[in-house]
Amino acid sequence: MTTITEVTGLASTRAVTAAVVDRLRGHTPFVCLDFDGTLAPIANDPATIELSTRGRAALIELSHCFPVAIVSGRAIADLKARIPTERLYFAGNHGLEIEGPGLTRRHAEAIAARRELQRAYSSIQHATTDIEGVLIEDKGLTLSVHYRQTPEFARLHVARAVDRAVVESQNLRKHHGKCVYELRPAVDWHKGAAVEYLRSAIERKTGTNLLPLYVGDDCTDEDAFAVLNQGRGVSILVADAARPTAAEYLLPSPDAVHKFLENLLDELT
Prior knowledge:
Number of helices: 9
Order of helices and strands: EHEHEHEEEHHEEHEEHEHEEEH
Strand content: 15-25%
Distance between the termini: 33 Å
CATH architecture of the largest domain: 3-Layer(aba) Sandwich
Number of domains: 2
CATH topology of the largest domain: Rossmann fold
Helix content: 25-40%
C-alpha cells in the first residue's frame, strides 16, 4: 500500500478532480461509491444516517449521464430506503447481493451460510447483552457488530464474543471496519469482485467499455482499490488524515465527495 499525505480541503478537491478528469477523458466512467463515510458522514447509530439533499441531487444527475453503483456493507433494502433508486446499481453486503436495471444476483454460498449467521447472531447477542453500546445488525447475508458507543474497557469482551462465534461456525470470517466487526460467509468475494462483476455485466448490456471510478473510506474498500489499481480503474480514498492505502487519490470528507461529483459532471458532460 501507499500512504497519501496531503489533505487540503477544497484545494485538494479541485486537484483531485483535475487529475481524475484527465484519467477519464476518452472513456465512459462507471462511478462506484461507498455510502457510510463516503456519501454520508458516519454516525453513532447507523440507522440515523441520511443522504443530504446535495448528495442526492448529484447522484441523480450522475446516473442520467453514466452508470452509477452504490457499493456498501449495508443490505440493498437498507440502501434503497436512503438513496434515490432510479437507474442506480447496488452492491450490498459487501457485494454478496447485487441489483440494478435488468440485473439481480445473490451469492449462492452466502445464502447457504444464512443459518450459521443466525447462530452467530444469537451467540454474540447472548455474550454481549450486558455490555453497553453494542449494536448487532442482521443484514441477511452478513452481520455487523458495532461498538462505537461501547466503553473502551469493554471492547475486548466484544471482540472475544465475535471471535468465539467465528470459531464455533467454522464457515464465517471476521473483518474489521470503523468501530465495527463484520461477519461474512467464508467465500472468495468482496467489493472489488462486485465492481468487476457489475462492470462486465453493464458492458455486455450496453456494448460500452467502462472505466470504473471507486470512492470509499473504509478498510473494506481497499479490496476495490487493489482491483482497480491493476490498470482497471481509478481509486479515491475518503479520509481526513493520512493512512496506508491502495488508493491513488484522496478526498477529506463526504462534503468534498459531493463537490467532486458536481465538478465531475461539469467537466465531463
